[in-house]
Design goal:
Shape: elongated
Largest sheet: 8 strands, mixed
CATH class of the largest domain: Alpha Beta
CATH architecture of the largest domain: 2-Layer Sandwich
Strand content: 25-35%
CATH topology of the largest domain: BirA Bifunctional Protein, domain 2
Structural class: alpha+beta
Strand order of the largest sheet: 6-10-11-20-19-18-15-14
CATH superfamily of the largest domain: Bira Bifunctional Protein, Domain 2
């Protein structure tokens, strides 16, 4: 047996991997290097052969994909390949492909990528198949796929080796096809309403006082410290100032924070901004968007999530944060006369708060503790305290509150929106308070002076919205964790 090729640094090989490399060496010695093939003319996908069988039966077709099973029976064999749309059986007979080609075929391994040309027919059992007249090894697989019936069940390994996961678990590949359809439907919904999709900078230079922690990097040519964006909001609102009345951006944002079932350090965000509307109109748009996308992606406005049927058709429930907290735990935040009184209530309930927490912070903490996990059906929580809403417009009838809402489904927040603050003087004051609060916590933050300058030129009344697209996909694919809907979730490297 010829020597199998091993380069320095190659991990220790299993017996099966050694045998595959020996087979590869045999092909190389025979002048049959499968890695030199650059083109193979595929005429049909597996789904097309099934769908159009009556029109194609007896005709010569060419398919290609990964061989996932094989039964060698002397001078004839059956095998299956997997392409991008499903499985297809093919039948190989020595007298049809030639003795040398058939001998090569018997050396193929499960996982090899192959091309098959032949006539379309049905077997005696009624299975649509291709009767091969020519066979080609397109790529040699040097790794052994997990067993078909056991699959790749190690969750950590599935996330690290998604390329294997999508081979052996077809339902995973289907999930990511659905993810793509969901995102396409979101774009279709917004485009049809006159929104313009735009791109704004990922690398930024100003560390605003938001609660999210950024990732840091350095631009060598400019000798400049930079940050990966934590949101797209401030640039999109600059565009509203500049005369674009409906804009959105759908892209990655980055937050240097912990990971759990609904958080990943990089994730896909949708932000939309529309001039001359308020948060009430944005609420209506959210209802319409989710119903539209669900029907496009699943065929129904009702979706199943972890055993619960979620009704996405409008109207959704609306309730203020203060009323939701009062209903859940009996606390009426309006009776608090000071921040100290609010913090004392938190102490009584053993809810940890920062020493400088304010009334609005305490109301939000009560909401997180008593209300959020109970919001299974779609619910808008409206009218947030101004202390936790630095970019939202105050309610004219109650300046302690803002025209802000978040919406919750299955006990998780999926989006955040408000009537945007367009008063540059109030905006500067809130930025200053935010920076002071972060400084008291030992965290650096600064005012985005250019954004304040943009507001000074004048921004029309505007409704803004942010949605976590990955959480939307979780909902519509019945996925319990965000890692299930990210092709390559963030993972700690194995050393």
């Amino acid at each position: 047996m010829p020597d199998y090729p091993v380069t320095p640094g190659t991990p220790e090989l299993t017996e099966q991997e050694i045998i595959r490399r020996q087979k590869l060496q045999g092909l190389l010695d025979a002048g049959k290097n499968p890695y030199l093939i650059t083109h193979f003319p595929v005429s049909h996908r597996s789904s097309e052969l099934v769908k159009d069988y009556d029109a194609l039966v007896g005709q010569t077709v060419t398919i290609a994909g990964r061989m996932i099973s094989r039964r060698v029976m002397g001078k004839a064999s059956f095998a299956h390949l997997l392409d991008g749309e499903g499985e297809m059986q093919f039948y190989v007979r020595r007298d049809d492909v030639g003795e040398d080609a058939y001998a090569d075929f018997k050396q193929w391994d499960i996982g090899d990528i192959v091309g098959i040309t032949g006539a379309l027919f049905k077997t005696k059992t009624g299975e649509i198949s291709v009767h091969a007249s020519a066979i080609t090894l397109l790529t040699k697989s040097l790794k052994v796929l997990p067993e078909k019936f056991h699959g790749l069940v190690d969750t950590d390994l599935r996330y690290r080796q998604r390329y294997v996961d999508t081979i052996v678990n077809p339902e995973v590949r289907d999930l990511f096809v659905k993810r793509s359809k969901i995102i396409s439907a979101v774009r279709e919904f917004l485009d049809s309403r006159g929104f313009l999709e735009v791109d704004t900078p990922v690398l930024q230079t100003v560390e605003i006082g938001a609660a999210a922690r950024p990732f840091r990097t350095h631009h060598n040519a400019l000798d400049l410290d930079m940050l990966l964006r934590i949101e797209t909001e401030l640039y999109l609102k600059r565009l509203i100032v500049g005369g674009f009345e409906k804009v959105y951006e759908l892209g990655r944002v980055f937050r240097n924070e912990g990971m759990d079932a609904t958080h990943n350090p990089e994730y896909t965000s949708l932000e939309t901004y529309q001039a001359f509307v308020d948060y009430h109109e944005v609420m209506e748009m959210v209802e319409q968007m989710f119903e539209f996308v669900a029907i496009r992606a699943t065929g129904s406005s009702d979706v199943s999530y972890q055993g619960e049927t979620i009704h996405l058709a409008a109207p959704w429930k609306r309730i203020s944060m203060a009323d939701a907290v009062k209903e859940a735990c009996g606390v009426d935040w309006t009776v608090w006369q000071s921040d100290e009184e609010a913090r004392a209530e938190m102490d009584r309930r053993e809810i940890h708060m920062e020493k400088d927490a304010r009334r609005g912070d305490c109301l939000a903490a009560l909401f997180d503790e008593y209300v959020e996990p109970t919001l299974i059906q779609p619910t808008f929580i409206v009218d947030y305290p101004v202390e936790i809403s630095p970019l939202a417009k105050r309610k004219p009838e109650n300046p302690a509150l803002t025209e802000r809402f978040e919406f919750f489904i299955t006990g998780h927040e999926l989006g955040n929106a408000f009537s945007e603050l367009n008063d540059p003087i109030d905006q500067r004051r809130r930025f200053e308070e935010q920076v002071e609060q972060r400084a008291a916590q030992g965290i650096r933050a600064e005012i985005d002076e250019d954004f304040v300058t943009a507001l000074e030129y004048g921004m029309p009344p505007t409704g803004g919205l942010g949605i976590g697209i990955d959480r939307m996909v979780m909902l519509m694919t019945d996925s319990p964790t965000i890692r299930d809907v990210l092709l390559f979730p963030t993972m700690k490297p194995i050393r």
